[in-house]
Amino acid sequence: MKMNVLVVGGGGREHAIIWKLKQSPLVGKLWCAPGNGGIAQMAECFPVDTMDIGGMVALALKLAADLVVVGPDDPLAAGMVDALEAAGVRAFGPNRAAAILEASKSFSKDLMLRYGIPTAACAVFEDSGVALDWLKNQKMPIVVKADGLALGKGVLICATLEEAEAAVRGMLDEGRFGRAGLRVVIEECLTGPEVTVLAFTDGRTLLPMASSQDHKRALDQDAGLNTGGMGTFSPSRVYTPEMAAWCTDHIYLPTVEAMNRERRPFKGVLYFGLMITPEGPKVIEYNARFGDPETQVILPRMENDLMEVMLAVLEERLGEIILAWKPDTAVCVVMASGGYPEAYRKGHPVSGLEEAESMEGITVFHAGTKAENGQILTNGGRVLGVTATGADMDEARARAYAGIERIAFQDAHWRRDIGIK
Ligand code: AMP
Ligand code: GLY
């Protein structure tokens, strides 16, 4: 019996998930909503918005989908998995109660504090007067974060007291991040390399995936604005097997256990954003889903059948699975629209995709594209994730950048230093 699967989302992460599911002998039909120009080449796409929970449940019922995989954070936080399950549809991803681990930073900070999980010291405020008073006695730099989901943009690293005050006022008094910023978390500024570890968990067993590193800033040498992620590589060079074992005992398993104790059992993919500080690894953030663009370098290295692992999560049989990874290095370089992460234009034709994809070791995941009359057009800030695997970092990097040389669209920009740090 093959499973017919609907994937919710339309970015590079969802393209990578569909690309991987397509390789599974357990998978029959693949659908996506809303999808994008690249996904449409592998799965039938339906124009249902990721936040239209009623519309997505109706689509899943109409298609008689055997499983719905929810990619992005907002529908998870809004309870899409709960709504699908209530309608009798199986869904992969945490329910609303568990997705709060990503949706509220004050929740996750409080959880870490109470269960002794290492993270930056912090204070939480809803009143700007109290926050501004408290700030006067703090060491700079300091980090001001909107409590809720803010497309990865609600984190401000403030070098001076004035910057921190402006950040607090912007969130609490001026509504800069809407409801997400009506509560702020102010955090000690940590230093060190950042590593992402994704893990499957069924609430009992946790299986970490291979490590990766993201590049959040828009420009080379980590200059420019924070973005959703300009490129990734896997594995990380700083994340040693000893560190992995320590993190499993002190961070990963305690998190799963803490969520069980809070009666918010977590089933799905847990994303640990770690900073490797001089005092050891600490949690910068949790996400309740696959990372984007981390997924684009993790799934190409995964030996297992993704459908088999997802079913094991749903059926709480993850203890039966052993994850295996290709020894290759994978690199994903994001090609973005000129101006991203600020204002940018859409609708430019993209050329050279087929030529790039015919090159050895290259897969191009679409992030912000659409297909129109057989032509791929840009349709978002992050347009493509050009991904390459190779025997080592040098080979993977050379392949990814050779692929990029073949691809063109107006005002394209990308970082030249992915994988160097
Ligand atoms: P987040 O959205 O929580 O992942 O934060 C975005 C980025 O801000 C992270 O990837 C880090 O580079 C940076 N960041 C967040 N919290 C801290 C912190 N406490 N100290 C230093 N940098 C941080
Ligand atoms: N790459 C960061 C994220 O998925 O949130």
Q: Characteristics of this structure?
A:
single chain, 421 residues, alpha+beta, Rossmann fold, Dna Ligase, domain 1, D-amino Acid Aminotransferase, Chain A, domain 1, 4 domains, 8-stranded antiparallel beta sheet, 5-stranded parallel beta sheet, 13 helices, globular, binds adenosine monophosphate, binds glycine
Number of strands: 21
> What value does the average pLDDT take?
96
What's the CATH H-level homologous superfamily of the largest domain? ATP-grasp fold, B domain
As a percent range, the share of strand residues is 25-35%
Shape: globular
Portion of residues in helices?
25-40%
CATH class of the largest domain: Alpha Beta
Helix-strand makeup class: alpha+beta
Number of distinct helices: 13
Instruction: Provide the CATH topology of the largest domain.
Output: D-amino Acid Aminotransferase, Chain A, domain 1
* Terminal CA distance: 46 Å
What is the CATH architecture term of the largest domain? 2-Layer Sandwich
Question: What's the gyration radius in Å?
Answer: 21 Å
* Small-molecule binders: adenosine monophosphate, glycine
Strand order, largest beta sheet: 16-15-10-11-14-17-21-18
